[in-house]
Amino acid sequence: MTISASQWGSPTASRRALLIHGLTMSSQSWEGIAQLLVADGFFVVAPNLLGHAWRQGTDYRISNIAEDLRSYFAMGTSYDVIIGHSLGGPVALSLLPFLPNTQETTVILLDPALELTEEKMKINTQFLLCEMSRIRTPEEHMAENPTWSRRDCISRVLGMAMYDRAAIEILRQNTPWSFTGLLKNIPPNVKITVLISDPKFNPFLDYVPLEVENVNSKVLTGIGHWIQYELPHAIMDAIPLPRAKL
């Protein structure tokens, strides 16, 4: 059970959002989106996943990472919006059985890591090992990603610095990496939107769902894997207005 998270806004806000970060990131990587959500009337919670933000573990299967977050649904707690990025995509989908079926929930997946071939797994593992061997500076990230804010670059560095080196097992323990099946049998009260980066700018993923029943998918031309940094308003546009404003 995790007790490591970031929160923004008032717990008495009329709407709630749960944000699930990606591999080698942390809850603080959601700062920009969280502030937009708070301005739109949300209370925002972003947990730190196992293996991240100094959290250690041994069982890094996606199902166990999700189970570790069960406490966020205690006493029937529900969320109007759940957002998951990359690794956070399959984790977010694994959380759906914890939701009460009495409230509509919008799930927004940002470049979700649902399918990886064996070759892509090897490439990602090697990339991760290289990144861990020398953590790049905020200035290096800014030079490589001119659309990122300095805050985003710092959060990227902090996420990598706080990542448990043993959590490389996330890749190894989830082989074969195949989670598209989580998109089957989605509860009727859950609406899913998938925002997909431009394949020209995404070396990390093999497949993201474009033609899945009851899933609204959109490719963001010219946008890379870090959608929350590069085009945050595309995320906000995918969130339904509260019924009072319709």
Structural class: alpha/beta
The low-confidence runs, each spanning 5 or more residues with pLDDT under 50, are: none
Count of β-strands: 9
Coarse shape: globular
The proportion of strand residues reads 15-25%
Quaternary class: single chain
**Count, helices:** 9
> Helix-strand pattern, N to C?
EEHEHEHEEHHHHEEEHH
Mean pLDDT: 92
Please describe the biggest sheet, giving its number of strands, its sense, and whether it closes into a barrel: 7 strands, mixed
Q: What is the strand arrangement across the widest sheet?
A: 1-3-2-4-5-8-9
Description:
- Helix 5 (138-144) packs across helix 6.
- It is globular and about 45 Å long.
- 37% of the residues are buried.
- The protein is an alpha/beta fold.
- The chain has nine helices and nine strands.
- The strands form two sheets. A seven-stranded mixed beta sheet has the order 1-3-2-4-5-8-9, sandwiched between helices. A two-stranded antiparallel ribbon has the order 6-7.
What's the quick description here?
The chain is α/β, with parallel strands linked by helices and 246 residues long.
Write the layout of secondary structure elements.
Elements lengths: L4 E4 L6 E6 L10 H9 L2 E6 L14 H6 L13 E5 L2 H7 L10 E6 L4 E2 L1 H16 L4 H7 L5 H12 L7 H5 L3 E2 L11 E8 L17 E6 L6 H4 L1 H6 L9
Parallel strand pairs: 2-3, 2-4, 4-5, 5-8, 8-9
Antiparallel strand pairs: 1-3, 6-7
Helix pairs in contact: 5-6
